[in-house]
Fold this protein.
Amino acid sequence: MAPISDNWPDVEASLEIMEPDFADRIISMVDQLQPHHPRIEAFASSFHPQRLPCRLLANHYTWGQSFLVFELLFSDNTSWIIRFGMRPMDAYFNTAAQLERKILNEVAALHLVRQRTTIPVPTIIAYHAHPSPSNPLGPNFPAFMLMTAITGMTIEDCGVAIHDMDSQSGVVFDTDPLGGDESKRPILQRYLRDIADIHVQLSRITFDRIGSFVIDDQGKVTVGPGADFGLGPFDSAKEFGRRGRGRA
């Protein structure tokens, strides 16, 4: 099986079109982690059921606003993903406190989805939500999340041009998403049923407060302050509308 990261965007091309400050934020973290790849690989292998060795695929990484992302490929060709929290962009975005809330929210959300639905989601293997001396990778390592990877196919891979459908109503515009091939209709129908089922299952996960999820060491999930700015939690939509948007 080919590495999952083979499908990620080209690193050099992506960096070239970025603002220099943003690109430097990524490149500097890649350089910071480079000497520590063996430690990261050993850490991941220690969680594998058979303790299989793995290698961090260093030349093809990706990123978002908050995390630098690498693939770890094991000797049996299975893959895990490790995400490292990047340094703040300024005094307000991606601060250590904000990053910690984001990580705890994501860990808790995945836990809830796995616990309460049949929706396939990655399994969190290990995480450390803030830089600290107790970080299992080392005291100077950034916050991280280690998780399994899920592979699959897009609807376009199946020959259905779903991008030609209205994202709000599902109404086909100018072209036939099936390309005139009626044998593909069951694929489209199953796709739409699965999307509807996912929305229905997620709608059943409800709490009586508004904020972001937090999870404790026993796996109990509660609602805490919002991940972005640490506001809340709020007891009502009215309170969220008034205070959550910074109004007095």
Notes: The first strand starts at residue 54 and ends at 56. Residues 96-116 form the longest helix (21 residues). The chain is about 30% helix and 15% strand. The radius of gyration is 21 Å.
